[in-house]
Each structure stands twice: as structure tokens, then as C-alpha cells.
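Hey,
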Amino acid sequence: MIQVTDTISIDENEIHEDFILASGPGGQNVNKVATAVQLRFDVLNSPSLPPEVRERLIRLAGSRMTKDGVLIITARRFRTQEGNREDALVRLIELVRRAMEKPKPRRRTTPKPAAKKRRLEEKRQRGATKRMRKPVSKADE
């Protein structure tokens, strides 16, 4: 079990890891050894996540989420498989923790009367400035 928070823990069987060739650090090893890890976590079918956390996680994941509801995290920062496995797991845990936080509800506000008055006065000033730039017509002379 991977402990995310005191209330949420993810079973290791829910996480699938594939090792792929990685670009970046590794020297000649980069073409021979699959050190990058692609972590897959089925968010939609996971019994570990409460429904509201699942919805927020899907929204937070963005393009990392497939159409089938599988979250894919690719880690290739380190030269070793173990380093990249740990990195991918840490990123998954961090994403789930961020999804745990309830967003603060937005409170609608209205502009103050003084701000409205100021805005309208600035519009009048701007209009007057633009009117002054017009060429003088024959009727106005």
C-alpha cells in the first residue's frame, strides 16, 4: 500500500509501470537501457479514491489523462530505473494530494459605485480626446 494521506492509500496492484528508452542523461547507455518509466494509474476504476477526489484528479491531470481514464506519468529525469520509478511515484502522490484539496468557492463581487463612476468618467475623457483628433468639418467652422 502506498500511503498518500491519512485517509487515502493506493494499492500497488493499481499502478502499472513500463520502462522505455529515454533521451537525456545516460551517455552511451541511453540507447541500450530502458531507464525512463511510464507509470499508469486507472483513475476511473480505482476503489482507493473517493468520487470528488477522482473528479478533481481528472481535471488536474489534463493531457496526462487518456480517454479511458488512465493517468500516465512519464519520468525520465534520472539515469537509473529506480530513480525514475521513485520520481514518478512522488509525482503521482503529489497530484493526488493536490486533488484532495477542496477549491475555495468563488464569491461574486460587484464593482463599487465610485469605481463605476471613475470608469465612466475615463470613458468620457477618452471619447473627448478622440473627438478632438477629428478634422474640423465645413459645418463646424
